[in-house]
Design goal:
Blueprint: E1 4-8, H1 16-23, E2 29-35, E3 48-53, H2 60-74, E4 78-79, H3 86-95, E5 102-103, H4 109-116, H5 118-127, E6 135-136, H6 138-142, E7 155-159, E8 169-171, H7 174-183, E9 190-194, E10 198-208, E11 211-221, E12 233-237, H8 240-253, E13 257-266, E14 272-278, H9 285-290, H10 295-305, E15 313-315, E16 333-335, E17 341-344, H11 346-358, H12 372-377, H13 380-407
Parallel strand pairs: 1-2, 1-4, 2-3, 4-5
Antiparallel strand pairs: 6-9, 7-8, 7-9, 10-11, 10-13, 11-12, 12-17, 13-14, 15-16
Length: 408
């Protein structure tokens, strides 16, 4: 089988290990990584042929020239950007045709920036009559043009540019909100929206010109997180109302590329609300791969073939759940090998599996997939990570004991 050489030009991204965990499952994939990080665990992956460190001070032009050079040296087939800054995204998008390699589907910079900015995207959703938690104008609140009594508490204060739930704060009273606005934050970087209690959901999709090519939905179970970060345990499935809503959004955006939506199902009304979207790969892509939908690999196929025509695909929905012919998602196709899957990070899955195994007499045992299966087949990156953690902790212990010794 011919090897497919994939170049990741921003391998320092926090998403890079997750993408590599997906691609390592395909024996025909080889990787070339370009990174600002001099020493990284990924350079020891069995599918990484070349790891290029180019320094953090290089200009965008030098970075792009490095991409061209590595494409020429290694006969790269596909370039896979993961989490580029706005400036690099613009430059790469405008100059990608100069490369002697294909690029995975990418949204145009205007759409990319619209979705990436949570406030602008929230306003876009509301203007397109798509349910989104009510947004409150922070400037109007701070200047007294909007009274606190007109706000339905509790509310969430969220960074406009952010990921992973970091920086989100729940505010229960007007006094608390007013204090924060006057003392602690730059309101240009935040939005304020109504807090809705319900079930958190996710939906990731690979799209082309407003059509969905591959999609999964995810729900969360186990112990809930208290800080709005990604839960440890995930169910990958296909919830048809979520898929229909996402199909409507990507159609209106005419979206091309990867996108992941955070949604919420209202606990009282069962209505779906779109909270935000991230125009990139997402943290649960290994879970989707375990369910048979390997988004990084499928993105490579689309880049090389232009479609999924070479794959063995069946109808997206079961015949018992067929969508109306006028619905955009009625033309979807989907891999035959998709299967609903439960997945957890290494810690969450380990504790869940042990707990269920111990209490097997109370309920049927349900095996939870995890990255551990991948680490067994590609162990060196994880071993290097553990080595670095050990060295760091040992260094801290030595420093702490040295200070105690000096005080004595």
């Amino acid at each position: 089988m011919k090897k497919v050489v994939v170049l990741i030009p921003d391998a320092e991204s926090i998403l890079a290990p997750l993408v590599v965990d997906c691609l390592v499952q395909k024996s025909e994939i080889r990787l070339v990584l370009i990174s600002q990080e001099k020493k990284a665990a990924l350079r020891y992956s069995r599918i990484v042929d070349t790891y290029v460190y180019y320094g953090s001070e290089n200009s965008i032009e030098n970075w792009f020239n490095q991409i061209q050079l590595q494409i020429s040296i290694h006969h790269v087939d596909v370039v896979m950007p993961l989490f580029l800054s706005d400036e690099r995204y613009d430059y790469y998008f405008l100059n990608r045709e100069k490369l002697n390699a294909k690029t995975i589907p990418m949204a145009d910079p205007r759409s990319f920036k619209l979705v990436k900015n949570k406030l602008n995207f929230g306003n876009w959703l509301q203007s397109n009559t798509i349910k989104h938690p009510t947004l409150y104008n922070l400037y109007a609140i701070q200047n007294g043009q909007m009274t606190l009594s007109s706000i339905k508490f509790p509310v969430l204060l969220k960074p406009i540019h952010g990921a992973g739930g970091i920086g989100i704060k729940k505010i229960n009273t007007g006094e608390e909100l007013f204090t924060i606005l006057n003392d602690k934050i730059n309101i240009e970087n935040y939005l304020c929206q109504t807090f809705i209690k319900g079930q958190d959901l996710g939906c990731g999709a690979l799209c082309f010109n407003g059509l969905v090519l591959a999609i999964t939905t995810q729900s969360y179970f186990g112990e809930p997180t208290t800080d709005y970060t990604t839960p440890f345990l995930i169910n990958i499935s296909l919830e048809s109302d979520v898929v229909q809503l996402v199909a409507e959004i990507v159609s209106k955006l005419n979206w091309t590329g990867l996108i992941n939506f955070d949604l919420l199902r209202d606990g009282k009304t069962n209505e779906l609300f779109v909270l935000e979207a991230n125009p990139r790969f997402w943290r649960s892509i290994p879970a989707a791969a375990a369910a048979g939908v390997n988004f990084p690999y499928l993105a490579c196929i689309v880049a090389i073939e232009g479609s999924f025509n070479e794959c063995n695909f069946a109808n997206f929905f079961p015949t018992t759940d067929k969508l109306p012919s006028n619905n955009p998602s009625s033309n979807y196709s989907f891999p035959r090998y998709f299967k609903p899957t439960s997945y957890g990070n290494s810690k969450g899955a380990l504790f869940w599996n042990l707990k269920r195994l111990i209490h097997f007499y109370k309920e049927p045992f349900q095996f939870i997939h995890s990255p551990i299966q991948i680490w067994v087949t590609d162990p060196l990156p994880k071993l290097y990570d553990l080595y670095r953690i050990f060295c760091l902790r040992l260094k801290n212990i030595i420093k702490r004991n040295f200070r105690i010794f000096n005080k004595a």
